[in-house]
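Feature request, filed as a ticket because there's no other form

It would be nice if the structure record came with a short human-readable summary line next to the tokens. Right now we just get the raw output. Example of a typical job, pasted below so the devs can see what we mean:
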Amino acid sequence: MNDSKDRWMTPRETANYLRISLKSVYSRVAMRQLPFSRLGGSLRFRRSELDGLLEETKVEAMRMGR
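Raw output as currently delivered:
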């Protein structure tokens, strides 16, 4: 059975998932900022890899002392 966290997504699904424009997805692919695979002539993105990227680039909030 295919785990939904490890499924392959199209560029449009990836844009919706990341809440960015489709143009931004293609720009980030061109700059190698998103992990992707080419299947034939099509781009595909693994959801688990996108989640890992988001986790790696997360910025922790600063604690404000009083």
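Something like this underneath would help us a lot:
Residues 4-56 form a domain with the Arc Repressor Mutant, subunit A fold (CATH 1.10.10).
The two ends are 51 Å apart (CA to CA).
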